Amino acid sequence: MHITSADTNQLRYRERLTPSLWILVSAAVAAPMAALVFVPVDGTLALIVGLAVGAALLTTLIGVSPVIRIDDHELRVGRAHIAHEHLGAVETFTGDDARQVRGPGLQRTWWHRFRGGVDGVVVVSLTDVDDPHTAWAFSSRTPERIAAVLERAHA
Q: Which of 43, 46, 57, 121 could crosslink 98 through cysteines, CB 3.0-4.6 Å?
């Protein structure tokens, strides 16, 4: 049996940045609205359409949510990825500090992926001089865990 590097690449952290509960509830309200449109045609059809619309919206919202993934070789946030060797210092922010980073403190040279309803922010500086971005800034529900995993990856 031949073992490749992909076989030994171990997942260290994974988090899906799902929408907040209020966004999911708001999307679920579309189900009865869609059902009401079809009530004059047929009650059973209205129920089926309402359930289908609600399930499709919720599945889509959750399915397209970006995933933060850290393995032995790289950090992935959504479709973007970068090797650990290009990562520098890691900072975490919550509360008012996180709002500052997401708003007025956001640097134009940073790559960012923020999700509404997720309080924490992680900022990872980049050491690659050829990269046009100086840091990555992204939302996380557990920024301290990401910082700890990235620090262990550097060691």
A: 121
Checking DSSP bridges between strand 120-126 and strand 11-16, what pairing results, if any? unpaired
Tokens of 106: 């956001």
Phi, psi of 70 (to 5 degrees): -125, 125
| Residues sharing a CB contact under 8 Å with residue 22, sequence separation 6 or more, in sequence order | 117
> 19-49, pLDDT tens digit by residue?
988 888 988 899 999 999 999 999 999 999 9
Structure tokens at 44: 């059973």
Q: Does residue 8 carry a pLDDT above 70?
A: no
- Placement of tokens 């490749």 in the chain: 4
Is the pTM higher than 0.85? The answer reads: no
